[in-house]
Amino acid sequence: MRGRSLYLKLLSAVIVFGAWETAGRIPVSYAFPTFFESMSALATLFLDGTIFTAYAETLKPLVVGVAISAVLGIGLGLWIGLSEKFDWLFSPIFVVMQSAPLAALIPLLVMAYGIGLTSKVFVVCIMAMPVIVLNTSGAVRNTPSVLKEMGRAFLGTDRDLILKIVIPAASPIIFAGLRLGISAGFIGAILAELKITPTGVGDIITYSRSIADYPRMYAAIFSIIVLAVLFLNLLEKVEQVLFKGNQRGYASD
Amino acid sequence: MPQTRDAAALHQAHDVDYAVTAHKVSKNYGDVEALKDLSLEFPRGQLTTLLGPSGCGKTTLLKIIAGLLAPNSGEIQVDRKTVTGPGPDRAFVFQDFALLPWASVIRNVAFGLELRGVAKSEREGIAEKYIQDVGLGGFENSFPHELSGGMRQRVGLARALAVDARVLLMDEPFSAVDEQTRRKFQEDLLSLVQHENKTFIFVTHSIEEAVYVSDQIAILLPRPSRVSEIIRPSGFRNRGSENIRRDPEYLDIVDRIWSSLRSYVE
Q: What is the pTM of this model?
């Protein structure tokens, strides 16, 4: 089974990259390089160390923003899910945040917080937090009531109920929110570097485009996608270790 | 009928010891009267069944006894102490098992003890014993989704037994398992009542099941719920579980309950 799924993954990679290569060779656009051109540009970026200095810059707002969004987002989500009052107070903010046209709001952020790290962290948070909060609160509210009842019948305190029933029960959806939030955070980090000040990977993208070095530009974009995918896979592994029984569904189904 | 006696008469005759009493319990959900002035006594060490058509408030009464719901008026006493919430003297077996899907069998069985702050090695020792008792030895580290419905309910039963409460509340515990498993469960329940010195309160909608397992059957009629009749099957209790279903008294009582309930079934 495992070998087969690896085989399918490889096959899908070959198809996608093959399509990319073909499209680059036709070419569909002068500004669209082939897969191999992009990969050799990526290798150059690695060899001369550019990519490492770039990521040292890009990861700062990304890591800070994602960490804040995860901790604060899950915390707020739990609170909103557990308390009706907080639901009324906070849910609308995150619904608005989720649907706001972020690019249009960036000038406001820059006016308020300057062009430094703070603004970029904000952009990452605005991208990442809403989905984490909304998923967490929704999952908490949907905890099977019979499990909570069971906890109370066996003399669980409110704290027991939250730690031993509500959070484990909600964890698959919390983790799904975390995954979506983090991938949105990656988008946010790059968006911030494109729209606020070109630094890090955003700088490679902007600069390469301005000098028409398209393979290098696509190499940078490709690298951020690969990083995001690797990170999300890691998160999935963490979840599987933490909540072993959960991925197999509910016993009362 | 000679084989059924009125609970009040019995009370005067033998001065029975009651583990649980419900006194004039009323419960409303909004405008709907679920229970009205319901009074009922549950003799210690025996199994009392709450039987009635759906919507008659039998599960509501059970949850009020468990302390999971608060009555609007009236009170429940367990060992002469008024119930204000869930307590260590009562354990609950749920209709749909209510097992933690992310926890192994042994953790599920030990969960009641875990919530009471019993140390891990001690509670797992106790859980181990009850897992053996309910016949799930070897499944300690399985997860609920790997078990059949009947096995899951055995886990639920072991969890309730593990906290060693004097009163066991069972909310249609066998309704989600298949017919053959259900018969086995009923036989096991009879020996459980005989060997454990506990008071059982059992909710079911199956007339046959009620007559088969009960020392006392309270028939509840709906809207608003009240106790219409108390039946105490007594003649066939000591004749072996395999003979009950063809005992004339068993058949008579089943028939009689059906004739009093049939007009309430839509």
A: 0.79
Does some domain include residue A7? no
Number of domains in chain A: 1
Tell me how far apart the alpha carbons of residues B61 and B218 are, in angstroms, rounded to a whole number: 12
pLDDT at residue B134 tops 70: yes
> Which residue, chain included where needed, has tokens 């070095």?
A213
Mapped onto helix, strand or coil, the DSSP state of residue A103 is helix
CB contact under 8 A, A154 and B111: yes
Minimum Cα–Cα distance from A149: chain B residue: B68
Residue B128 sits at the chain A interface (C-beta within 8 Å): no
- CATH number of the CATH domain containing A49: 1.10.3720.10
> B240 falls in which pLDDT band (50, 70, 90)?
confident
CA distance B11 to chain A (A): 30
User: pLDDT for A73-120, tens place per residue?
Assistant: 999 999 999 888 888 888 888 888 888 888 788 888 889 888 888 999
CATH class of B1-89+175-266: alpha beta
A248–chain B Cβ distance below 8 A for any pair: yes
Give the domain ranges of chain B.
Answer: 1-89+175-266, 95-164
Identify the burial level of A161 via C-beta atoms within 10 angstroms of its C-beta, where 0-12 means exposed, 13-18 middle and 19 or more buried: buried
On whether residue A29 sits in a domain, the answer given is no
Instruction: Supply the ipTM of this predicted assembly.
Output: 0.84
